# Entry
Amino acid sequence: MVERLTALVTGASSGIGADTARRLAAAGAHVVLHGRDQDRLKALATETGGTVLVGELAEPGAARALAERALEVSGQVDVLVNNAGLGWAGPLPEMPAADLTRLVAVNLVAPLELTRALVPDMLARGSGRVVFVTSIAGRTGVAGEAVYAATKAGVDAFADSLRFELHGTGVGIAVVVPGVVQTAFFERRGRPYGRSSPRPVPADRVAAAVVRAVTADGDFYVPRWLRVPVALRGVAPGLYRALATRFGAAG
# Structure
């Protein structure tokens, strides 16, 4: 149940974050909407009754500042949805250094810092939930997106480690692992999605998994069949790499 809980959703301006905020609000939660597009956030706040916090997570100290602002406006944060993320596609030697730094700051450093800032208050209450929206790229690797995949893999390792650390405290950790999603992510990363398969899933389908993750620990794959390549990579990494090289692992 998420009724009467306060949920901070990062990257709520559009896509998965916006749909997650809508679903949480419909379930009775008060949503604190973070993002960079003030106009979109204001419209979403009107729709959901949420609170808007505009900010750029790439800036040093931005995550800590966001946590402090969220606590100021809401009193407490019961659920943290680390959803904000950036992409970049292309050969690694062509990636500008500034883009690499920004990708790591938003995708990896920000969720770590935001979680570190909000978990102590959850521990003091003996309840809370942190949900990480990662990517299948972080579990299987994707050609042309080495830095993006590395940031998502880092979040995965952080989430797993935190699960062990917080076991028995009342603070739960969950991870949502989407594949290809129908959002503007691919256009923003600099290269549209050009494969015929797998077909992109609606952002709201991922948002539904995020809401499920608010009440249950574990990993939530969207779609569920993504567990198959992850399992194959785990039990037969050589075979997985051979198949991925032959049939392509590009996003």
